[in-house]
Automatic annotation (TrEMBL):
Protein name, entry field: Thymidine phosphorylase
Listed GO MF terms: 1,4-alpha-oligoglucan phosphorylase activity; thymidine phosphorylase activity
Class of enzymatic activity (EC top level): transferase
Organism: Candidatus Roizmanbacteria bacterium CG22_combo_CG10-13_8_21_14_all_38_20
GO BP terms in the entry: pyrimidine nucleobase metabolic process; pyrimidine nucleoside metabolic process
InterPro entries to which the protein is assigned, alphabetical: Glycosyl_Trfase_fam3, Glycosyl_Trfase_fam3_N_dom, Glycosyl_Trfase_fam3_N_dom_sf, Nuc_phospho_transferase, PYNP-like_C_sf, PYNP_C, Thymidine/AMP_Pase, Thymidine/pyrmidine_PPase
Listed EC numbers: 2.4.2.4
Pfam families listed in its UniProt record: Glycos_trans_3N, Glycos_transf_3, PYNP_C
Sorted UniProt keywords: Glycosyltransferase, Transferase
Domain Pyrimidine nucleoside phosphorylase C-terminal: 355-421
One Gene Ontology CC term in the entry: cytosol
Amino acid sequence: MNSKKEAIEAIKKKLKGQKLTDHEIFALMDEIGHNRLGPILTTYFAAAGFSQGFTKHELVEFTDAMVKTGKQIKFEGIVADKHSIGGVAGTRTSMIVTPIVAAAGFKIPKSSTRAITAAAGTADTMEVLAPVEFPVDQIKNIVNQTNGCIVWGGKLGIAPADDVIIQVERPLAFESFDKIAVSVMAKKIAMGSTHLVIDIPFGPYMKVRHMKDAQVVTEKFEYIAKKFGIKIKIEVIPTDESNGFGVGPVLEIHDVLAILEQDKDRPIKFEDRSLRLAGSLLDMCLADVVDRNSLPVVSQSGTGREIAEEVLKSGAALLKMREIVKAQGGDPNFSRSMFKVGKYKFELKASTSGVVKAINSKELNGVSRILGSPEDKQAGMKIVKRLSDKVNKNDILAVLYSSSKWRLDEAVDTLMQLPMYYLEK
């Protein structure tokens, strides 16, 4: 049986809920990764995985096959990495964690995705500052020069099957927990990661809605990481709203730069989440350092969290971000004023008085996508009122931006049908 026929038979088996052999899994990933299966059959596989799920052994084999059917990058020594499984609107923690960890003396080659279900992915947002598409050799040069990078993994040829599967998932905006774990771990293994922190937000409007689901996802990540010798820390964080003020690439860059510049009006919840993740990652890395005196002075003593705070407050993280942006071909002299929002805007106002009881993050992401995000970098939403805020009638709850009048009108119509804010008197 040739490889394509074997892959098709494997899809049929999985649709029936049957286990796949290692050989079938490799054939399936090889066919998908090299675009020989086509979008229809790939969609059948994605749907089968979503409905039937995989055994622990299958998870490991799918991860291994994704890695082996693509390119791999190797770095010397400790290689740090961080990933959030997403679903949180306007929380670009990778763009804070990466320069902090790099400035603290550790390599952190951050390969990110573009948005699947959110209004923007890290790669979409970083693209406001600098190019994010590079060949493998150039990424190695950037990391060896600056200790870090923030790039899009979609054109690297790393875990190529994952990139193809993402393309068929995007229109339906769904991912299974199994697929999330395999996708993330395959990319991290292929990027040479040795120490990894995973951010799992859970809440009523997140991808992971309940603590019991977070525990299931945690076990999947830990199992795969152990099999591949990666040290991992899972941070399960209750999340009921966006940690930042902006949703959409330019608006999210405003938040990122406000934190890096330590502006007095920066989003503190966003900053605290970033410091928590950076601190956990640094603690893991520091535990495996033979001689801390070989690190930058800031990292020679203290906990990971203390080091992360000092790197951020001292301006070292901002300086490191400028280095990374320059190495990736962007303007290192960036400032928030350089990045404008869409010229068409609408102020969403409260129709009654009360207290903000809930903000639907899925609607927030969905409406921002209608506005044009992430393709339209200037589109998105600025959150004005947050959870527990008191609101008077006609107070501004949020401001919508788009480069298209038609898209703005569509988004406003959607909000009238599907409310994003819930007020309690």
